[in-house]
């Protein structure tokens, strides 16, 4: 009888574990290339790191941990990371989600539902051949934009983040000088 009571509790415990795992599982939306454009437009004045990767790409998987680390380090300076999976449709969403959880990838992930690289690659950068890893770093407020079709080392990624942030300060200085000059001119002090 005691054994039977324990067995009745086991399914309940198992159900709680499954529900708990599902509650913490990352949602991975399915995107078209136009959704990448919408994502960029939804982040005014921010530095965006958009990384194209796949679960089967060893250099991709190797670089993602420091992409996550640096995006968290610079989060207060409005730096965001988006990981866009180029995995095969058979991997979406379950295998991508499990892979991300296993490797501790806690940054936002989406899956690009496009099959024609001749269409979507030039929309990201005209020089992109389609190989991965590939990373687009841009500042939506200044027009800063750099594309890398290579595995990025941590030091290089951080230097590029700093360059994108610096473009913001440079544009801010130019804007404030323009505003000052415009005000002085407007009130007749020139």
Summarize the SSE layout with pairings.
Elements: H1 2-24, E1 30-31, H2 33-41, E2 47-53, H3 58-73, E3 79-85, H4 94-103, E4 109-112, H5 117-124, E5 134-139, E6 145-148, H6 154-186
Parallel strand pairs: 1-4, 2-3, 3-4
Antiparallel strand pairs: 2-5, 5-6
Please state roughly what percent of the residues sit in beta strands, choosing from under 5%, 5-15%, 15-25%, 25-35%, 35-45% or over 45%.
15-25%
Structural class: alpha/beta
Average residue-wise pLDDT? 84
Low-confidence stretches: 13-23, 173-190
* Helix content bin: 40-55%
Q: Largest beta sheet: what is the strand line-up?
A: 1-4-3-2-5-6
Q: Provide the gyration radius in Å.
A: 22 Å
Order of helices and strands: HEHEHEHEHEEH
Distance between the termini: 97 Å
Number of E strands: 6
- Summed up, the helix count is 6
Mass-distribution shape: globular
Q: Sketch the major β-sheet.
A: 6 strands, mixed
Molecular structure report:
This protein has 190 residues and is α/β, with parallel strands linked by helices. Helices cover 52% and strands 16% of the residues. It contains six helices and six strands, in the order αβαβαβαβαββα. It has helices at 2-24, 33-41, 58-73, 94-103, 117-124, 154-186; strands spanning 30-31, 47-53, 79-85, 109-112, 134-139, 145-148. It has a six-stranded mixed beta sheet with strand order 1-4-3-2-5-6. Strand 2 (47-53), helix 3 (58-73) and strand 3 (79-85) form a beta-alpha-beta unit. The longest helix has 33 residues, at 154-186. Mean pLDDT is 84; it is low at 13-23 and 173-190.
């Amino acid at each position: 009888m005691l054994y039977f009571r324990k067995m009745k509790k086991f399914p309940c415990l198992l159900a709680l574990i499954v529900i708990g795992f599902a509650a913490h599982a990352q949602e991975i939306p399915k995107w078209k290339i136009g959704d990448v454009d919408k994502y960029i437009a939804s982040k005014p004045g921010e530095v965006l790191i958009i990384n194209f990767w796949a679960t089967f790409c060893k250099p991709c998987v190797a670089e993602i941990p420091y992409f996550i680390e640096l995006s968290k380090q610079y989060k207060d300076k409005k730096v965001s990371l988006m990981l866009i999976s180029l995995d095969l449709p058979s991997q979406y969403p379950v295998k991508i989600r499990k892979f991300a959880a296993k490797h501790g990838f806690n940054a936002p992930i989406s899956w690009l539902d496009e099959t024609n690289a001749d269409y979507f690659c030039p929309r990201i950068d005209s020089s992109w051949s389609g190989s991965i890893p590939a990373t687009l770093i841009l500042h939506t407020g200044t027009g800063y934009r750099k594309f890398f079709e290579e595995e990025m080392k941590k030091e290089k990624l951080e230097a590029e983040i700093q360059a994108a942030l610096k473009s913001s300060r440079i544009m801010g200085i130019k804007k404030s000088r323009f505003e000052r000059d415009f005000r002085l001119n407007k009130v007749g002090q020139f």
